[in-house]
Amino acid sequence: MRLISAVLVLVGAFQLASDAAACDSKTGERQQLVFASWAGESLAAMYLEGDEMMYFQIPNGVKFGVRTRPVSDDVYREQFQWRKYNSELVHLEFYDTKEKQPTLIAETLAGANSTSNISADFVPGVGDPRLRVELQKSVCVSADDLSRKGPAQAAN
């Protein structure tokens, strides 16, 4: 029982540290966290800002890059034709980085908090169902949010 409690405390501490990094405590600015893994083994993890790209190499030797960008308001306007609410989206780009100048090989819209297995049909030469990209973007809550909505609804 003590071992289980210790593991839960460590996992909770890691999550708090991760959340703290993803939500700036002074400005409330949120950051996009990107994880890449192959068959469950971590390849890379990075908070991406602006035009930053996360680089990694998959087991078949291909050097690969991932970048996120904000989506335009037009993308949301289009989505709102079909639904009242929509998940926060990011523009997700995949690059072949074997040359000095990375080459865009695929792009899509993805949820800011989503997980995708990357198929060869989608990313030729790189995609494989064992390649997984996970996106996380924290929701920041302020004291003002609590006073307007109450604690239970502050993150909604």
CA radius of gyration is 18 Å
Beta percentage is: 35-45%
The residue fraction in helices comes out at: 10-25%
How many individual helices?
A: 3
Global mean pLDDT: 81
Major sheet attributes = 4 strands, antiparallel
User: What's the overall geometry?
Assistant: globular
Overall number of strands: 8
Order of helices and strands: HEEEEHEEEEH
> What is the terminal-to-terminal distance?
35 Å
Helix and strand content put the structural class at alpha+beta
Provide the low-confidence segments as ranges: 3-20
Spatial strand sequence of the major β-sheet: 2-1-8-7
What does this structure look like?
By secondary structure, the chain is α+β, with helices and mostly antiparallel strands. The chain has a domain at about 30-135. About 20% of the residues lie in helices and about 40% in strands. The protein has helices at about 1-20, 75-80, 145-150; strands at about 30-40, 40-50, 55, 65-70, 90-95, 105-110, 115-120, 130-135. Strand 5 and strand 6 (about 105-110) form a beta hairpin. The radius of gyration is 18 Å and the shape is globular. The model is unreliable at about 5-20 (pLDDT under 50).
Can you summarize this structure?
The protein is of the alpha+beta class. It has a domain at 31-137. It is 22% helix and 38% strand.
Keywords summarizing the entry:
22% helix; 3 helices; disordered N terminus; alpha+beta; 4-stranded antiparallel β-sheet; 156 residues
